[in-house]
Design a protein that fits this description.
The protein has 155 residues and is α/β, with parallel strands linked by helices. 45% of the residues lie in helices and 18% in strands. The chain is globular, with a radius of gyration of 15 Å.
Length: 155
């Protein structure tokens, strides 16, 4: 059958978007909001606001930038994950370095994706997380690992 977005509680994923950039929030909200089975329940611009909105809105998933003022994405993830019934947290960043991946894992994030990969890989990543996959680096992680190995070898 067909899905009326935002009407089917079994298949609709409630998403909170968090980023200090209004342009990124607007673009991501428009794109993800047009995807079937995804309902954007709110947006936030700081980590502090994200923690508050998670408590208020009870999203299934938080898509959040790492770099924000007042409380960064790692700190906000720790606070969000400390709560009962915590949502999945997918962190975004401009540069998905191994350090960022390690910090994301340590904070309790479920995934990390480079902003450049969002439109190509975010939906697949969301579907994987919600089907029970553990920490993932996004679909582009294999090429990133190859690039790192190539740099280590000096190629």
């Amino acid at each position: 059958g067909f899905l009326l977005r935002g009407r089917d509680p079994v298949t609709t994923v409630r998403v909170l978007l968090v980023d200090s950039s209004d342009d990124f929030l607007h673009g991501l909200s428009a794109w993800l909001g047009s995807e079937s089975g995804i309902e954007i329940v709110g947006t936030a611009r700081t980590g502090v606001e994200a923690v508050e909105k998670v408590d208020q809105l009870k999203p299934d998933l938080v898509v959040m930038d790492i770099c924000m003022s007042h409380m960064n994405g790692f700190q906000a993830t720790r606070e969000i994950k400390a709560g009962a019934g915590a949502p999945r947290v997918l962190l975004t960043t401009f540069h998905a370095s191994e350090t960022a991946r390690s910090e994301a894992r340590a904070a309790g994030a479920d995934a990390l994706i480079a902003k450049a990969e969002v439109t190509a890989n975010l939906r697949e990543l969301i579907d994987g997380l919600l089907s029970g996959k553990k920490f993932t680096n996004g679909s582009g992680s294999q090429s990133s690992r190859r690039e790192i190995r190539r740099k280590e070898k000096g190629v």
